[in-house]
User: Fold this.
Amino acid sequence: MGDAPSAMSALVLLHGYGDDREGLLALADLLSAPQRLVVVPEAPQTSPVGGRQWWPLDSEDRPTWAWHGTPAATGPRHRQVDVARARVLELLTDLRHRYDVRQVSLAGFSQGGMLALDVALAPGSGVAKVAALSAVLLADTERHVADGGRPRILLAHGELDDQVPFAAGESTRDILAEHGHTVDWLPFTGGHDIPDEVVWALTAFLDL
Assistant:
């Protein structure tokens, strides 16, 4: 990042559970532009299935209220989601301070998409656009849909997704729309993946 030009936008790509930053470098190359700095951080924790994780998926540290559908607004926060959110917000602050970044966008796949939504919707995040690919709205994030950040949102989800149910993506779309968020919805025929049509849509979304 040290040789990046000034007066640019920044895109932060967040990888999924069991992956690492290497898994998104090809996508980062496709999304690169002369005045867009693309950053791919790595999740802080080692995943038990290989790769990395932003927070654990086991029942001990990912209780049922971390998944949309069960939480109460006054319920306990997920401490590992809090830590992951703070880590990405710190990265965004660093990018703004080190470079003349006029616009910050986030995009993430699966667990990274959940985190991207969570960060972008946090009050005061300053994120202009967020793309959540094959993801879902977390309980912790749902607290902020009414009074948090107001980025433009792209949601893409495979109708045959066997990891994050398609219905969860539809539910996320509906909750955000009900609270007045601008949501671009892209369902596609496929599974838990980032097909070409999603890459094209993401490119167009970032260029808006």
Summary: The first strand starts at residue 8 and ends at 14. Residues 8-207 form a domain with the Rossmann fold fold (CATH 3.40.50.1820). Residues 79-98 form the longest helix (20 residues).
